[in-house]
Every structure is written in C-alpha cells, then in structure tokens.
Amino acid sequence: MNATPRWLTTEQQAAWDSFIHMQEKLIGRLSRRVQADSGMSASDYIVLAKLTETGGGRMRFMDLAKLVEWEKSRMSHQVGRMTKRGLVTKEDCPDDGRGAFIVATAAGHQAIEEAAPVHVEQVRRLFIDALTPEELDALARISNRVLAHMEKQPD
How far, CA to CA in Å, does 49 sit from each of 33, 71, 91, 92? Predict the structure, then answer.
C-alpha cells in the first residue's frame, strides 16, 4: 500500500533547493581549489584530514569509513589509490585478523600539512566570512538538529 506523497510546499522546496545548490557549489569550489593547490583530490584530503585530526594518523579501516560516511568498497578503492601514491599504508590489526589500520605516511602528513592552511583559508573566504557570528551559531544549531533527527531515522 503506497501512502500519498507529502509534497513540499513552495517555501520548503525553495529552502531545500537553496541548501543543495549552496552545498554543491561550495564543495565543488573547495574540491577544485584543493586539487589545484595540492594535487590531492577532495577524497584524498578528507581521508588524510580525518586520519590526522581524529586518529593521530592511524585509524581502523571501518571506523574511518563510518566517520566519512563511505561504503566499504569506496574506502577500499580510495585507500588503494592513496597507498600507490605513498600517502597511506594499510596495516593488519593484531587483535582482529579481518581488520586493518589505515596509517598516514610521512608523505601523507606532509601533504595534509601543506594543504590544510590553503583549504581553511578557502572555507573562511567562501563560507565563514559570508555569515555573522549569530548566523554561524544558528547554522550550527540547525545542522546539529538535522543530524540528531537523522540518527533516529532508519537508513
């Protein structure tokens, strides 16, 4: 039995469209800038950033995949590409034969250390500087509310 769709109102559709357009344009511009300035893809950047910010340069494979909201296969392909370029290594987990750690190499640490200042300046230029402190606070509250709501919803 199909329920009748709960169509969005004009205002709801406008808010959704604006949010998606802003998010896609922002991510696209940041990704292109990271690529141009550092030679790293946006995926390289996010993996190295999360590894070094959260895990001290070392994290279990599945924990990293969950942290960036990627499927296991996508993370596996990304780690493979980054391993070939010497940015990360994969180490067996001593207490779990099926598990693995992803470890940022010295080259990976250097790459993220060089890319991060440029990235944060672009985040500031394109996003932070466009909003007042009050607007940033409101956006953080809204984002956290949506995230909490999503956690309660089935995937």
Answer: 16, 18, 19, 22
- pLDDT score for 97: 66
In a domain, 24, yes or no: no
- Within a domain: residue 132? yes
Give the pTM. 0.85
Range of the domain at 108: 39-152
pLDDT > 70: what percent of the chain? Answer: 97
Cα radius of gyration rounded to whole Å, the chain: 19
What 3-state class would DSSP assign to 80? helix
In a domain, 80, yes or no: yes
Backbone angles phi, psi at 97, to 5 degrees: -60, -25
